[in-house]
Amino acid sequence: MAKVYMTCGRICSGKSTYAQTLRQKHSAVILSVDEITLALFGQDAGEKHDDYVAAAEKYLYRKSVEIIETGISVVLDWGFWTRAEREEARQFYGAHGIAYEFHYLDIGEAEWHRRLEKRNAAVAAQQTDAYYVDDGLAAKFASIFEAPASDETDCRIISE
Predict the structure, then answer these.
(1) Between 20 and 30 A from 120 (CA), which of 3, 7, 114, 137?
(2) Bridge partners of 156?
(3) CA 55, CA 122: separation in Å to the nearest integer?
(4) Strand ranges inside 1-145, DSSP E
(5) Read out DSSP for 31-51?
């Protein structure tokens, strides 16, 4: 039976890499907000970025149901940074009778900073199309993220 796997974690915690593992393990399709917004706007979404992300998420929720109804599992590769976002996803898939799992990538502070530096270097060298995360953006994301309680996730992956 097809289901949806949702990756939860801070920016640059390894969600996209982990999503690939889930994709291979479950023969699933990855739906990524960053992939859509970067393809359409590059690094230049500016003040409209949050609006574009919200629109992409809304679209991907609908598309995920369509894909799951064909019998193919889906991996949602975005952060689910707040408890409210995670609850909204639970309610959405519950209302559609779709099985789901939350996978939380829990990353230590030092490792997170190391990965941010590595990613930013790769973006600057045009080796990846990920977002560049400056200090202001990192602080914004850090202030938004609410680590999930143990009863909110089905799987927790710890990276120190």
Answers:
(1) 7
(2) 104
(3) 27
(4) 3-8, 29-32, 74-77, 99-107
(5) EEHHHHHHHHHTT--GGGHHH
What are the pLDDT digits (tens) for 52-62? 889 999 999 99
pTM recorded for the entire structure: 0.90
Q: Measured in Å, how far apart are the chain's first and last C-alpha atoms?
A: 34
Alpha carbon dihedral 122, 114, 51, 64, in 10-degree steps, equals 90
Residue 137: what residue type? L
| Burial of 149 from C-beta contacts in 10 A (0-12 / 13-18 / 19+) | exposed
Q: Are 88 and 104 in contact (CB under 8 A)?
A: no
H/E stretch holding 159: strand 155-159
Residues paired with 6 in a beta bridge: 76, 102
3-159 CATH, one of 3.30.428.10, 3.40.50.2000, 3.40.50.300, 3.30.420.40? 3.40.50.300
What would the two tokens of residue 90 be? 């639970």
